Amino acid sequence: MNPNTMNPLDPEEFRKNGHMVIDFLADYYQSIQNFPVRSQVKPGFLLETLPDSFPLHPEPLETIMNDVQTDIIPGITHWQSPNFFAYFASSGSTASFLGEMLTNGFNVVGFNWESSPAATELEMVVMEWLLKLLQLPPCFSFANGGGGVLHGTTCEAFICTMHAAREKILDQIGRQNASKLVVYCSDQTHFSFQKSAKILGINPNNIREVPTSKSSNFQLLPQSLEDMIKEDIEAGFVPMYLCATVGTTSTTTVDPLGPLCEVANAYNMWVHVDAAYAGSACICPEFRHFLNGVEGASSFSFNAHKWLLTNLACCCLWVKDRLALTSSLSTNSVLLRNKATESGEVVDYKDWQITLSRRFQSLKLWMVLRTHGATGLREMIRKHVKLAKEFQRLVAMDARFEILVPRYFSVVCFRVSPSVINDDEGDANEFNKKLLQSVNATGRVYMTQTIVGGIFVIRFAVGATLTEEKHVLKAWKLVCDHATSMLCKLN
Ligand SMILES: *Cc1c(COP(=O)(O)O)cnc(C)c1O
Question: Which atom of ligand 1 is nearest to the CA of 306?
Answer without folding.
Answer: 1
